[in-house]
Amino acid sequence: MKRQAYRLIASRVGLVLLTLLIVSAIVFAMTGLLPGDAAQEALGQAATPEAVAALRHQFGLDQPALQRYLQWLFHIVRGDFGMSLANSLPVSALIETRLPNSLMLAGLTTVVAVPIALTVGIASAMYRGSWLDRALNLLTLSTVAVPEFLVATIAVLIFAVNLHWLPALSYLSSVSSFGDLVRIYAMPVMTLCCVLIAQMARMTRAAVLDQLNSGYVEMATLKGASQVRIVLRHVLPNAIGPIANAVALSLSYLFGGVVIVESIFNYPGLASLMVDAVTNRDMPLVQGCVMVFCAAYLALVLMADVCQIISNPRLRQR
């Protein structure tokens, strides 16, 4: 690759690190604005003011906010998210127990959503203006407009309450076979896939249409190449960068939708852990979970930018 490409990638990495720093300051400030007292929450309402003050001193909550932020940031850089105020366990250990479950849910959603979305987007672009294109556009637009909690609620009412096909709650401890795995993950994955497939399909369609309007496609058409051959042999190789960018940006949506899905289906993932931490006023755990989500989101955005840079022939060739 050219030096310009390396400089662009380095600048993107620097922007990601700067964004993480800004996000860390915002997260620390916002969690400090949450109502309630963590020490009072941990000791209960019957605790004496002296006991609450002693616990606040033990947690370091009586220190100035800037000092607490700098100490917290220094420990995060070292990989230490601190101690949970609710159960006196390391935040890193709590995250490690839940993160694999969230990654499993995101991975299964990706495996299901990406092939379907790419197929829908490419088919819609190939037959643009036809009844199939109009039907797929109407379907994707309608799906994007439906919020996740409504999809999850309807899925529970149909498949769990009325048909009794799937469990309403996701208990991973009951998984003993592949059939149990499918039943447990069916509704959470379906809920996440609805909006994810629609977003990814529309972005893929736009990327393929942009290539179909290029001059080399017109030349291939004049030479008698079929539509399928043009798309498979000419369009897709040139649209890999934009499509990878669309996939990465769409997958970053998972880190927002997974919060709603895990809460509704009582899925034991990182998002439900964060919701419980907010309820318990467990600030270090909330901060640790939010930083993990932000880092994962920025990693996907960075991946999309890198794919866009690498796919540019003017930057790829020396």
Describe the structure in your own words:
The chain is mostly helical and 318 residues long. It has a domain of 210 residues: MetI-like (MetI-like fold), CATH 1.10.3720. Helix content is 78%, strand content 0%. It is built from 14 helices and no strands. The longest helix has 36 residues. 31% of the residues are buried. It is found in: Cell membrane. One of its GO terms (biological process) is transmembrane transport.
Helix fraction?
Answer: over 70%
Label the structural class: mainly alpha
Order of helices and strands: HHHHHHHHHHHHHH
> Quick one: biggest sheet?
none
Under CATH at level 1, the class of the domain at 92-301 stands as Mainly Alpha
Mean pLDDT: 82
Regarding quaternary structure, how should these chains be classified?
single chain
CATH superfamily of the domain at 92-301: MetI-like
CATH architectural arrangement of the domain at 92-301: Orthogonal Bundle
Would you give the CATH topology of the domain at 92-301?
MetI-like fold
Number of helices: 14
Radius of gyration, whole Å? 24 Å
Overall strand count: 0
Compose a concise summary of this entry.
This protein has 318 residues and is an all-alpha fold. It is built from 14 helices and no strands.
What features would you highlight for this structure?
single chain; MetI-like fold; ABC transporter permease; 14 helices; 318 residues; mainly alpha; transmembrane helix; flat
